[in-house]
Amino acid sequence: MSEKGEALDCALEVIMTLERKGLRPDDVLIAERLGKPLADVRRVMEEAIRQGLVVKKDGYYELTAEGLKRVLRHRELFIHDRFVHGEGGWSAEVRDWGKHWRHRHGLTKDLLESFYKALTDLDGRVEELKPLSDMGPGDRGVVVSIACGLGAARRLAEMGLTPGVQVTMVRKAPLRGPVEVEVRGTRVILGYGLASRIAVKGLGGSA
Amino acid sequence: MKSITIALAGNANVGKSSIFNRLTGLSQHVGNWPGKTVEKAEGTLYFQGYKIEVIDLPGAYSLSPYSVEEVIVRDYLLSREADVVVDVVDASALERNLYLVIQLVELQAPLVIALNQVDMAERKGIAIDHEKLSEMLGVKVVPTVAITGEGLNELLRAIVEAVERGEGLTAKLLTYGKEVEERIRRLEVEVRKLGMGEKYPPRWVSIKLLERDPLVAELVSKCEGGAEVLKLADELARELEDMHGEPSPIVIASERYSKISEIVSRVQKVVAPPRVKWERTLDYATTHPVLGYVILLSTIAGMLGLVFYFGGLLSEVIEGYVGNPLAEVTRALLSTSLPAEAVRIVVDGLVMGFVAGLVVVLPYVVPFYAILSILEDSGYLARAAYLTDNLMHRIGLHGKAVLPMLLGLGCNVPACVGCKILETDRERMLCGLAAVFVPCVARTVVILGAVGRYLGVLPALSIYFLAFLVLLMVVKLAYRVAPGEPMDLIMEMPAYRRPSLRLTALKTWSKAKSFVVVALPIIMAASSALEVLSAVGLAEQLVPAMAPLTVGLLGLPAVAAIPLVFGFLRKELALVMLAEVLGTWELSEAMTPAQLYTFALVTSIYIPCVATLAALVREFGWKRAILVAVTTLAVAIAAGALAHAIAVVLRL
User: Fold this and answer.
1) Residues 6+ apart with CB under 8 A from B529
2) Which of A23, B89, B301, B514 is most buried (CB neighbours < 10 A)?
3) DSSP SS3 for A130
4) CATH number of the domain at A129-205, please?
5) Which of B94, B95, B399 faces A178 most closely, judged by CB atoms?
6) Residues B45, B12: one domain?
7) Which CA distances in Å does A145 have to A186, B179, B490?
8) Share of chain A above pLDDT 70, in %
9) Are residues B159 and B222 in the same domain?
10) Which CATH class is domain A3-63?
11) By the 8 A CB rule, do A123 and A173 touch?
12) Alpha carbons B558 and B547: distance in angstroms, whole number
């Protein structure tokens, strides 16, 4: 993706996060959140308006339906490529994403709905998420979403791995072996495939 | 005498079976839950004028309806047979363990909590105010150390006292967060109207419905007005899902955990840095990317060595001092009064079957049970699973299956028994299927004797290779067709602890006992049946009857039917019998190299032996055992036919 497109996605995600928090974003707030000069932000936002992704009302931006769709697609694509198909990536064109998730990745209808809900509710940028399997030993993170079958999701929840819980990576077996994490005072080992479908937001490492 | 029934519930690795063994000692009886292949252990003890029946429920993390164990626990609790449910809680992992407690509270089970492994918690720097916990939950909490037996008298006293007083067993109502709680209450009002009886507390039913529990939904649908309740439950669950963006079972699980965090923050203090030095060193070494594998390989080699060295020794002793004399004595006793055929059936069938059971099964199974119990109790098994998950994943199994697979190289019987360490039914079955395809020592004898000796090392190795290829293909296929969701490894990594000799001995004894009860009759029956076959002359008729298969399909000499059929008793005997029916020990004089190869290939694939079949029956039930046996037979014939066809094409 072009640099310009990336800046645009960044800005859209910021607007969406702010909107969901009940805040009304203007140029200054967006620039502050992005940590970018005001002039750059203005330029990006003009482009966004031109593409019909946002509208400007009394100096405040609002995401259009088109804009919302773009954010969700961006997040979905990121999660799909990064978490589900992993480093090998995914090159083929996907026409019907709902079908793809259901048939290829075994997500049930309920799970799919909750997955989209999690995408909508995501606080901040999707790029901040990483698979649990990418955390290094000693790293801490918060579980954001779990993209696996209901049976495994339930089992994880029973072992204490619920969305929102803090986990610490203890160690990783070599060659994509399982990972050992500490959660709620106990240690749990998870297969690599499963760990790579658990999205966490990093909190930085401890000792 | 008045009697009390108590049931022990708890997560895996909390020392539940240690408490059970401490309480019941040698009075225990191990069997299976009716219709299930999960072990059921019961025992009795006498205390303060009461006869106390103890039932050890399978280890469970939850009461969801998705694993055999958990359904068993739940059904048992719902039957309300137990006067008291003792939830054994690992004090060193209180938060996770309270998850089950909270579900027992929801179910309104008559509850007493054994706060176990308080010593270990202390060493980890965790202090738990058990009185405060008891106050918050409204039930008795007794600190115990199962390994030493500390606190068990207090536990029994608390149970008896609570039963005598008839109160203090029902926990306080735990309320959840507003959003969930409101919906539970709304549903509860409607559920109450259904009048499902005392067994099913309306609040519990409501929570389960919100969790979309299919078993409870089915129960409710049978009630009058159930359909409306289900509809309301679905609506409410959907509301929760919309609000939280998670499937409702996950919402409820999170809710339980937030309640638990609240409790834990008030009763638990972590003071010192966790983990003891020796434990940390051992943990580090056994999971190290290099050293860990070295230790794993040595452990496995040591284990195989121990099992087969002691097994072999014991086996010889039993055969020489018990088996053979027993056969001679029976023969001498019977030959005066019975015709020769009948004597043969009794001696070579029944008695030798009994002896074979003792010789083949016991000497190997007993040390295996002991070692498995030690590995499991010490916490090493989880490390082994961690190290090998990667590799096992490639054949569609996961890390925990490594032990049974390796044991299979020695003998398939302990391998089948070892499948028990896997959690879900699906995984157990896949592992069992894989285990019987591992070429065991007896099959190695045939491979070496028929192929290695006459055709060289490489062809012999190629049979080994083919056997593993077949294993891989069959398991991969089964992985696709077996019902249930494929599960990645999700397993608790317990801290290391010293296993207790006494408990190991107790466990080994009771398991071996129950194995003998199931396996010996099957082995004796099968071996007598085969003797009857040969006594009435059917064995000779087998040769022409099976000719289309042996000669036509496999290209073997017709007489090979006999060793193939009788190899079912003991595989290593197949070679001896082959020599007998051919009338020469120089097998290469009577059979072509291709025939030798096919014979060894077929022998090393089809169902290992009657003892393995017995083990399969013990672990998986008749239906599945036969399914596995038939699968191996079909695969063996197909592989043999293919080998023959290739030989014909290549004119070998």
Assistant:
1) B349
2) B89
3) strand
4) 2.30.30.90
5) B399
6) yes
7) 20, 21, 17
8) 83
9) no
10) mainly alpha
11) no
12) 5
DSSP helix/strand/coil, B140: strand
* pLDDT beneath 50, residues of chain B: none
Would B148 be classed as within a structural domain? yes
pLDDT at A207: 39
Q: CB neighbours of B500 closer than 8 A, spacing ≥ 6? A: B18, B147, B377
Domain that holds residue B148: 2-165
Condensed to tens digits (0 to 9), the pLDDT of residues A113-157 reads 767 777 777 777 777 788 898 899 999 998 887 777 777 888 888
Q: What is the largest CA-CA distance in chain B?
A: 86
Which residues touch A116 (CB under 8 Å, ≥6 apart)? Answer: A72, A76
Q: Is residue B101 within 8 Å of residue B141, measured between CB atoms?
A: no
| Cβ-based interface (< 8 Å): residues of B facing A | 61-62, 64, 66, 93-96, 99, 241-242, 244-247, 249-250, 253-254, 257, 287, 289, 382, 385-387, 389-390, 393, 398-399, 484-485, 487-494
**Is B116 in the same domain as B201?**
no
pLDDT for the residue B35: 64
Rounded to a whole number of angstroms, the distance from the CA of B598 to the nearest CA of chain A is 38
Q: What are the DSSP E strand ranges found in A64-194? A: 129-131, 139-146, 166-172, 179-183, 186-190
Q: Yes or no: say if A61 and A54 are a contact pair by the CB < 8 Å rule.
A: yes
Contact B302, B410 (CB under 8 A): no
Cα separation of B122 and A145, whole Å?
35
Interface ipTM: 0.76
pLDDT per residue as tens digits for the range B579-638: 877 877 788 888 898 999 999 999 989 887 888 888 888 888 888 899 999 999 999 999
The total of other beta-carbon atoms located within 10 Å of residue A36's CB is: 15
| Whether residue A90 has pLDDT greater than 60 | no
* Token pair belonging to B154: 């207090």
